[in-house]
Specification:
CATH topology: Aminopeptidase
Largest sheet: 7 strands, mixed
Number of helices: 5
Helix content: 25-40%
CATH class: Alpha Beta
CATH superfamily: Gcn5-related N-acetyltransferase (GNAT)
CATH architecture: 3-Layer(aba) Sandwich
Strand content: 25-35%
Order of helices and strands: EHHHEEEHEHEE
Structural class: alpha+beta
Strand order of the largest sheet: 1-2-3-4-5-7-6
Length: about 180
């Protein structure tokens, strides 16, 4: 599956070759604030945890993986959008309910890039077929992410304690039936 370029952005599936981009993005405490309280990710975590996790769910035909987002005019990397089955690392992954998540550099905040990229990826996933829902979670208080969810047409479903092997916290869950 390919994602069509949006007006200002282009997209490419991330691979192990993008480890340094992932690392650099995670070196800003503000970027990491709603991920883990502002703790920076080490090179070792990228190599030994995040890349192997990404490899387990990346499926280009289905559009699953982490999509690198770059500015169309300069090709500068500004962030990424994650696509994987909801609860992928749990006992009952929902293969027809895809989770969208995003992480962007602070200098790109407030410019609509996260919404623009998530909307382009959402549309491509819907056109690709085989799904019933798109969903997203955010730590309570992450109003910027919740606003993106709303702009994507997602509706609040519940607040719950989300757990996977590397992330556990109270989250709000939003969902869109497609």
């Amino acid at each position: 599956m390919n994602i069509k370029n949006s007006e200002r952005l282009n997209f490419e599936i991330m691979t192990a070759d993008d480890a340094e981009l992932m690392f650099q993005l995670d070196q800003d405490p503000e970027v990491m604030r709603f991920i883990n309280g502002g703790i920076l990710t080490s090179h070792e975590e990228i190599i030994n945890v995040y890349l192997p996790r990404m490899a387990t769910y990346t499926n280009l035909n289905k559009g699953w993986g982490i999509w690198k987002v770059c500015l169309e005019d300069s090709a500068d990397f500004i962030g990424w959008v994650l696509v994987r089955p909801m609860h992928f690392f749990g006992d009952n992954p929902e293969l027809d309910n895809l989770e969208l998540g995003w992480r962007f550099s602070k200098d790109s905040w407030g410019k609509g890039y996260a919404t623009e990229s998530a909307a382009a990826i959402k549309q491509a996933l819907i056109e690709n077929g085989g799904i019933k829902k798109l969903s997203a979670i955010a730590v309570e208080g992450n109003t910027a992410s919740v606003n993106i969810m709303k702009k994507l047409g997602m509706k609040y479903i519940k607040t719950y304690f989300h757990e996977d092997p590397i992330f556990s916290d109270m989250v709000v869950y939003y969902e869109l039936e497609v």
